[in-house]
Amino acid sequence: MEICFQLLTQEKRVTQRELFYKLLYSSPDYFTSQLEVSRMTQVVTVLESWLLAEVFHWAFVVAGYLNLIEKLIMQSDAQYIIVVEKHAIFQRLAEDKIFNHLITTKGYPDIATRLLLYRRSRAFPDLPIIALVDWNPAGLAILCTFKFGSIGMGLEAYRYTCNVKWLGLRGDDLTLIPEQSLVPLKPRDLQIAKNLMSSEMLQGNYREEFLSMVQRSQRAELAL
Q1: Quick check: 111 and 160 in contact, CB under 8 A?
Q2: 26 and 89 share one domain
Q3: Least CB-packed of 7, 31, 86, 98 within 10 Å?
Q4: Are 121 and 209 part of one and the same domain?
Q5: How far out from the chain centre does Cα 206 lie?
Q6: Is 69 among the domain residues?
């Protein structure tokens, strides 16, 4: 209830997943699973619906031919670009104004998003690009798609690649977070890791991170 009140007074929005991580950190003896938090929010919604912070989805979408992006005349006073895997984290960073230029993939990046980032990197070659992704095979696969290209594009795999730096957890950082915050890998995670580890595009330190995930059979998800 206290956290819900804080979110309301600060005009912050959170997903149930974010709320779970907040409670796991502040009250580990009371909340140990996402299911418990989900049930709790349902009860609070019924009893004190006026106290809950609103959670809603918003996005800006640009429609049109891809070659229009190539023709864009770009200007920017940004000092860096942050590429964010999750829309919820993108929303929080935007609310807190922790950004110069934010782009969200909302999951696996489509060609239009990759092309837009590629055009930005070509127009401003000295502008750092950093990616904030989960420490799991899917998150690292998103980063690798921007940096090395898409395996599924065949001969055009390297098209629209740009020099993206990795911002976020590494395998060596896992000792700094509670063990209960780690989640077991799913079969799909293992398949993603296996596919990318067999790819010639993948470079050494990224391959080592995939191997660490597989050996630990765990993943860590980011939340703000």
Answers
A1: yes
A2: no
A3: 98
A4: yes
A5: 17
A6: no
Rounded to whole angstroms, how far apart are CA atoms 105 and 25? 27
CA angle, residues 129, 135, 138, in degrees to nearest 5: 85
CA distances from 1 to 4, 95, 174 (A): 5, 22, 30
Choose among 167, 160, 101, 93: nearest CA to 130. Answer: 167
Asked if the structure places residue 105 within a domain, the reply is yes
What confidence score (pLDDT) does residue 56 get? 34
Residues 201, 141: Cα–Cα separation, whole Å: 12
In a domain, 193, yes or no: yes
Within this chain, do residues 100 and 150 fall inside the same structural domain, yes or no? yes
**Which letter does DSSP use for residue 56 in this model?**
-
Q: Are residues 21 and 85 in the same domain?
A: no
Task: State the virtual CA torsion across 113, 119, 120, 124 in degrees, nearest 10.
Answer: 160
Instruction: Return the ∠ at Cα 82 (arms to 77 and 88), rounded to 5°.
Output: 125
Residue 122: CATH number of its domain: 3.40.1360.10
Of the pLDDT bands very low, low, confident and very high (cuts 50, 70, 90), residue 213 is very high
Q: Residue 140 has what pLDDT? A: 92
Note whether 45 and 81 are same-domain residues. no
34 assigned to some structural domain: yes
35-49, 62-76, 87-101, 166-180: lowest mean pLDDT where?
35-49
Its pTM stands at 0.67
Q: How confident is the model at residue 46 (pLDDT cuts 50, 70, 90)?
A: very low
